[in-house]
């Protein structure tokens, strides 16, 4: 039996473009251009999935989501927005939206998200999210003729994303191929906190990406993107910051450590310039990754092979990297009291080892650092 998708958007060109693609994939289509109409069509047509634009005339998408969940708490709603903010994404997820995706829409990501929603058992969609998700088909670049795209629905990623991908892919060709699958999150998740350097409220919107995308950092208010790649490391002085053009991602080290431990290789991280510091540890990042769920993808990871001993020394700091069968760390710290000399030996033999032994470690600073951060706000 064909599955039915209700498209709710007041932009006719966007509706027509989505409709054409979904019909080609064998879906039945119902349409609405306002919130009030969407509720009526929902009650009449009983769609399997709803694509709901947030910015609608009159009753907005958030209010429509509340009404739909009031009618059927188990309905599967995918929120769409051309002007996403972290508060909006957080509100959508808390109200029971299955996922939250942004315009310009990647058609592959849209189709994958719809299929995820359809693969989800009906009794899990109301609150538990997509805990069981079937393996996705491999990523295929889909393009639509330019004349069919009058607004915000290109078939390929936005220019900033296309520009961000090549360095990652070029680097992959210099690596050794393994049998380990690439991974992304099963669904989007949001997190609120405070920036370490700015002292301002900030947050995260983590969104799944197709294979070969890499880890990408973007700003919630622009299309600028910086890949999590060594070429774009701006500084590691007080915290690790990335920069490419006007795109900036500050204080990424805790989140990047979590993504490595959970072997997440493809992810979009939307934020407001800085990753929230939370309680100074990485535990909250572990929790949101586990909440979203991890999905293995068909493509394999291109691993970076260390084939010889490497050493670098800077003043009183040194780093040695050498070949080994597993990833392990021996860390030696020598500071004046009360910190003193400390050592740590760690072997990354799974996510639980990282979560139990490394993630709880808190950021510490000296009085001079606190004074500097105070001057910065």
Could you give the topology of this structure?
Elements: E1 4-8, H1 12-24, E2 28-32, H2 35-45, E3 49-53, H3 61-71, E4 77-81, H4 86-94, E5 99-102, H5 107-119, H6 159-172, E6 176-185, E7 189-194, E8 201-208, E9 215-219, E10 225-227, E11 233-235, E12 241-244, E13 247-249, H7 253-261, E14 267-271, H8 283-292, E15 294-303, E16 310-314, E17 317-321, E18 328-334, E19 341-347, H9 351-357, H10 367-376
Parallel strand pairs: 1-2, 1-3, 3-4, 4-5, 9-14
Antiparallel strand pairs: 6-15, 7-8, 8-14, 9-10, 11-12, 12-13, 16-17, 18-19
Helix pairs in contact: 2-3
Descriptive overview:
The protein has 377 residues and is of the alpha/beta class. The protein folds into 3 domains: 4-148, Rossmann fold (3-Layer(aba) Sandwich); 159-302, lpxc deacetylase, domain 1 (Ribosomal Protein S5, domain 2); 310-376, no CATH class. Helices cover 28% and strands 28% of the residues. It contains 10 helices and 19 strands. The chain has helices spanning 12-24, 35-45, 61-71, 86-94, 107-119, 159-172, 253-261, 283-292, 351-357, 367-376; strands at residues 4-8, 28-32, 49-53, 77-81, 99-102, 176-185, 189-194, 201-208, 215-219, 225-227, 233-235, 241-244, 247-249, 267-271, 294-303, 310-314, 317-321, 328-334, 341-347. Strands 2-1-3-4-5 form a 5-stranded parallel beta sheet, sandwiched between helices. Strands 7-8-14-9-10 form a 5-stranded mixed beta sheet, with helices on both faces. A hairpin with a 5-residue loop joins strand 11 and strand 12. The longest helix is centred in the middle third of the chain and has 14 residues, at 159-172. Residues 121-175 have low confidence and may be disordered.
């Amino acid at each position: 039996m064909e599955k039915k998708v209700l498209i709710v958007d007041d932009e006719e060109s966007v509706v027509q473009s989505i409709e054409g693609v979904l019909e080609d994939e064998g879906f039945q289509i119902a349409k609405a251009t306002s919130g009030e109409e969407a509720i009526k069509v929902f009650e009449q047509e009983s769609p399997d999935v709803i694509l709901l634009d947030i910015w609608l005339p009159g009753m907005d998408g958030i209010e429509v989501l509340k009404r739909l969940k009031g009618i059927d708490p188990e309905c599967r709603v995918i929120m769409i927005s051309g002007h996403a903010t972290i508060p909006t994404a957080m509100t959508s997820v808390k109200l029971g939206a299955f996922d939250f995706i942004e315009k310009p829409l990647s058609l592959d990501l849209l189709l994958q998200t719809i299929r995820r929603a359809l693969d989800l058992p009906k009794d899990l969609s109301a609150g538990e999210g997509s805990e069981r998700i079937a393996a996705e088909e491999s990523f295929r670049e889909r393009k639509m003729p330019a004349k069919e795209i009058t607004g915000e629905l290109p078939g390929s990623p936005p220019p900033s994303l296309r520009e961000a991908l090549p360095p990652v892919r070029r680097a992959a060709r210099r690596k050794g191929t393994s049998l380990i699958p690439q991974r992304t999150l099963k669904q989007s998740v949001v997190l609120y906190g405070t920036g370490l350097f700015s002292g301002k409220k900030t947050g995260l919107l983590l969104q799944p990406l197709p294979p070969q995308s890499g880890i990408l950092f973007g700003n919630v208010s622009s299309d600028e993107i910086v890949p999590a790649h060594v070429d774009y490391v701006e500084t590691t002085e007080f915290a690790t910051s990335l920069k490419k053009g006007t795109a900036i991602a500050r204080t990424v080290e805790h989140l990047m450590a979590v993504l490595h431990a959970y072997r997440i290789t493809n992810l979009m991280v939307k934020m407001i310039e800085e990753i929230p510091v939370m309680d100074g540890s990485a535990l909250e990042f572990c929790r949101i990754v586990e909440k979203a769920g991890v999905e293995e993808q068909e493509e394999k990871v291109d691993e970076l092979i260390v084939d010889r001993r490497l050493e670098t020394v800077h003043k009183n700091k040194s780093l040695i990297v050498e070949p080994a069968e597993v990833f392990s760390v021996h860390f030696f710290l020598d500071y004046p009291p009360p910190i003193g000399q400390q050592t740590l030996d760690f072997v990354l033999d799974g996510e639980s080892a990282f979560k139990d032994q490394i993630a709880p470690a808190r950021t510490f600073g000296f009085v001079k650092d606190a004074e500097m951060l105070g001057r910065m706000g």
